[in-house]
Amino acid sequence: MAVEELKVSTERRFSDVSADSGRASGGMTCSLSPGIGDAEGELLPMYEFEIPNTLVGLIIGIRGKTIKELCVRADVKMIIRPHHNSDKSESHQICTVEGKRDCINKCLRLLRRRFPSNRFPDLNLKPVMPPPMPCPAAEIFGNQPTNLALPDGVRCEVVVSAVVNPGHFFIQQPTHPTFSKLQQLDRYMLGIYSQTSGIPELPQPCAIGLLCVAPSHLGWYRAVTMAYYEDQDEVLIRYVDYGGYARLPRSDLRQIRTDLMTLPFQATECYLANVQPADGTSQWSDQASEDFQSLFVGKLTEACVVGHMIEDQIPVVELYTLDSEDQSVKCDKYLLDKDLAKLSDPSKWIPVSPK
């Protein structure tokens, strides 16, 4: 499982990240962010192991009694399906256990008590890796990492998926044809990286620009390394599908499988056009942050790329939404009208040609 490299700019935007921060800078705050949602929609860990065909009937039990009892006692879901490896499809099947980590461990203990290793040596309960994920995007993009781009000068529907501050955020494009594959990828990665063994960490020292897998909100998500702090053995990473930054121990990060790189990165980093904090510093007020969250986060909005920042080529966008009375709200104008921002220096970005 090779570590894949991705060329990224790392020279800016991180000097104000707290040295002791272990969470995402700004957080992943949208309803589409990884692992956020109600209990029914929560992404739960999965554990998969092999069952010899000779034991499948015993584990299921008469009319499913045994497997139902295991599910109830351990508070998990269990599914037995054909083996994905053609070499073992005639002799073994796969059992998937889904639930909270403690519940999965309880289920495995109950299975071992019922089927002790001295009597059932062929049932080892060791984790197996899922097969490569089929992804139609691979036919278009291949296995090289691809960033989704916003069209210049055109308003398109977006969702703000992570916020650093009102002037710096990440957006997703839920109407893009590849977006529907993201939830499938999330669940697939959860099944792989919830395994406690067999997944290599990132090498030490950690290089910059490595595509990897990082934990967040009870899930595992694609990320890229942005900075390495050798003294603490910690890594600043950016989540490429939901946005946001996090500073995490290197040992928490995992190498990524090549087949997980086919889906284009879903989060686009953006700056808000025309405005800066009202006091001229880099710090936005609490009121500006609260208003931005309530108006633009967790709902379908529109964005239009009006330029690109000279320093890092990140798109500069105007944001539009509807308020509670269905009146159109332009983000920069709202902040200016409320005295929560002032006009920014237009010489810092290059405008795009209007469509």
UniProtKB/TrEMBL annotation:
Keyword Disulfide bond tagged: no
Species name: Steinernema carpocapsae
CDD domains recorded: KH-I_AKAP1 (cd22395), Tudor_AKAP1 (cd20407)
Molecular function via GO: RNA binding
SUPFAM superfamilies: Eukaryotic type KH-domain (KH-domain type I) (SSF54791), Tudor/PWWP/MBT (SSF63748)
Start and end residues of each Tudor domain: 205-263
Pfam families from the UniProt entry: KH_1 (PF00013), TUDOR (PF00567)
Superkingdom field: Eukaryota
Matches recorded under Gene3D superfamilies: 2.30.30.140, 2.40.50.90, K Homology domain, type 1
GO CC field: mitochondrion
Keyword field: RNA-binding
InterPro entries: KH-I_AKAP1, KH_dom, KH_dom_type_1, KH_dom_type_1_sf, SNase_OB-fold_sf, Tudor, Tudor_AKAP1, Tudor_domain_containing
Protein name, UniProt field: Tudor domain-containing protein
Signal peptide segment: none
